[in-house]
Every structure is written in structure tokens, then in C-alpha cells.
Amino acid sequence: MQPKKYVDPLMDTSFKRLFGTEPNKELMINLLNAIFDGRKTLIDLEYSKSEHRGNNDEDGIAIFDLLCTSEKGEKIIVEVQHGYPVNFEERIINNTLRLINEQGRKGRIADWKYKISEVYIITVIGRKEPASTKNKIGVEGRYLHDVCLCHRETGEIIYHDLGCIYIDLTSFDKKDEECNVPLDRWLYELKHMPERENCPPHLKGTIYETFYHLGEYAELTREERNMYDQELKRRGDNAAAELTGLQ
Predict the structure, then answer these.
(1) How many CA atoms lie less than 13 Å away from 217 in the CB half-sphere?
(2) Under DSSP, is residue 182 helix (H, G, I), strand (E, B) or coil?
(3) How many CB atoms lie within 10 A of CB 94?
(4) SS3 for 242?
(5) Is 0.70 topped by the overall pTM?
(6) Beta bridge partners of 147
(7) Chain CA centroid to CA 57, Å
(8) Helix or strand or coil: residue 127?
């Protein structure tokens, strides 16, 4: 089958190419700033040397641990993942605790007094959950979910430096002309780039033109093409198996 001009950016191979490499970190910074929407403004980030992955094909997602620097000089730890991890809530708790625990220092508590950097878990969900998944994510029809620690009765936030932001692209249905803020523009392009024949004229001269150039199938290395093709086939096989199980 003739490959499309542009890759699906939410495939593991292409997501890592577009957002998970040092040369392309401006794409990640721009996407994160769109997600934070003024709450934080990031000016730089460093990728962890460790890449955390899921334990099976259904959960096999690349996870990026980022040490981000804000314009105010704050150091913020951000974990970015995509796909549809099974046991979503449990995974978020597990990964959050890992990021917090890794900041713990050896020695006397008085030397650091539990002071840690801000931690955010950001997940982009690009496909429907498997029918076998029991727990559903978020509120149906809402694509942006911003979760934090708060009082159950009043909703008052009790800790501002820990948060989970997850985006359900399957619930994002805005049209091209309705994308007037950076986050909506990013979500639209993440969802629809594989359908495009060329980078749209109104995106020329913006960071999205770079996004489209890097997302061309022809720009992948031979190794990346092989990995992408295998992943695409595996996803198709999984979808077929899931459909068969529903019949």
C-alpha cells in the first residue's frame, strides 16, 4: 500500500521523531506552552536519558521525562505520553509517584525538607479505548481535562505544583476555521495531518510548517520507515482483532 505523504503523528515512531528529539525540541516547547495556556511559559527543556515504555503492545507507548525551564527560572518536571494506556488512572498515579520519588535526596531530611520541583503528567489520547478497558477517561464529549489536588467539598486547590493534564483527541471535533487558539490549532493538526496533501497556506511561515516538513514520510530514515510501517501494521491487526472480539 502506498504510504500517505504525512505520517500519523500519534504513532510511537513518528511521535518520538517529532517531539522526542533534541533537534526538534522547539515543537515540544511550543506544544507544552499551548497546553499550559499562560499558566507556565517554557523557554527551554532537557530530555531525560531514560525512556520509559509500557509493558505490552496495547500499553507500548514512549514516555518522555522532561526537565523544563520557565521564563521565571522555575524548574518543572513534565512527563509527556500519548496513546491509550490501560488502567489510565492507576498509571497516572504510578508515574506521578515515580517522578516525585526520583527527586528524593539521601541524607538528612533537614537538608532538603521535601522540597521538590513542580510535576505535571501530560497525556494525549489519540484513539478510542479498547472495549476490554473498564475504566473510562474523563467526561464524555470534553477533550481537555485538567486535574489537580483539591478539597473534595469546596474544590479549592490545596497544592499547585502537581497536576495531570490529559487531552482526548477522540472528543476534539472543531473545524479548521474554529481553531483560534494555539492549543486547538495543535490538536487539529495532530489529528488531521495524515489526511493533508500539503501544509496549508495559512500555516506557512509558522512552526506548523516545520511540523509538516518533519512529518513527511519521505523524510524518515530507512530505519524509521521500517519501524513506522511495522507499527502501522500492528495497529491495524490489533484493531481487526478488537473488532472480531466485538462480533
Answers:
(1) 20
(2) helix
(3) 10
(4) helix
(5) yes
(6) 164
(7) 18
(8) coil
| 3-state SS class at 1 | coil
The one-character DSSP state at 215 is T
Q: For 47-92, what is each residue's pLDDT tens digit?
A: 987 555 544 444 456 688 999 999 999 999 999 987 666 677 787 8
**Quick one: three-class SS letters along 148-168?**
EEECCCCCCEEEEEEEEEEEE
Sign of CA pseudo-dihedral 99, 103, 109, 112: negative
18 neighbors 210 (Cβ within 8 angstroms): no
Please name the helix (run of DSSP H) or strand (run of DSSP E) that holds residue 15, with its range, or none: helix 12-19
Cell of residue 171, nine digits: 472528543
Q: Which grid coordinates are listed for 40?
A: 507556565
Tell me the pLDDT tens digit for each residue of 227-236: 999 988 887 7
Q: Which amino acid is at 59?
A: D
Backbone angles phi, psi at 48, to 5 degrees: -65, 150
| Type of residue numbered 138 | G
* 89 CB-near residues (< 8 Å, 6+ apart): 135
Closest CA to 169 of 51, 67, 83: 83
42-47 vs 63-70, strand pairing mode: antiparallel
The answer to whether 227 touches 220, Cβ cutoff 8 Å, is no
